[in-house]
Description:
Elements: E1 2-5, H1 9-31, E2 34-38, H2 45-53, E3 62-66, E4 68-70, H3 81-88, E5 97-99, H4 107-118, E6 125-128, E7 151-155, H5 158-166, E8 179-183, H6 185-189, E9 193-198, H7 204-212, E10 230-234, H8 236-239, E11 247-248
Parallel strand pairs: 1-10, 1-11, 2-3, 2-6, 3-5, 6-9, 9-10
Antiparallel strand pairs: 4-8, 7-8
Helix pairs in contact: 1-2
Amino acid sequence: MNVLLCRDAKDLGRRAAADAASHICRAVERRGHARVVFATGASQFEVLMALIAAEGIDWSKVVGFHLDEYLDLPITHPASFRRYLKERLVDRVRFQAFHYIDGEAEPQGECRRVSGLVAANPIDVALTGIGENGHLAFNDPPADFETERPYLVVALDEACRRQQLGEGWFSTFDKVPRLAISMSICQIMKAEAIVCSVPDRRKAEAVRAAIEGPVTPHTPASALQRHPRATLYVDPPAAERLSHRPEDV
């Protein structure tokens, strides 16, 4: 895993987007199409804005996949990740196809449906973040590092749910869903490249554990240490607990 320090959140978004764009363009040039996984949440605001503005991406040759989604949350809800991706990404470019997770569908059947789609061919690049509890996608600790299922139903722990409340997605803690569909750790790790964006001091301890701690299900994002082409972009507040200053970009 390569760790790069950015000047601030905006610079982080620009650098991470440029990295993702290069992977997308190379895949299109090499195979005629690219398959890309997209995360949501506050960590991706600047990344997606910069990626949409990036020159040279032929979006008509890009197939997109949805990383995770709450169960039983309608697309009209402000916290819906389907709504987030539709408004911030899918409606702004012309994808060849985009495969959402339908959190209102029967969960196990929906897991099978999206698993079949994502496993059909390799993923060129996955855009991810890290949660305050160290989660990767909605794989909260202790995460399942063994399952080969591409998508699975997961329970959200209290720390994860409190993060969603703290970021303003829900009005009260009780309204934060307890279950979600998430891409599994093993499936994320199958991506040819991973671009992980982590701004904000709230993530500093999770960043330290993911980079400097052991690879363990209790810090799900630590799995990125084992990926040969994972790059973690951090801003100074997110990096402040690291014992060694990462390389500047």
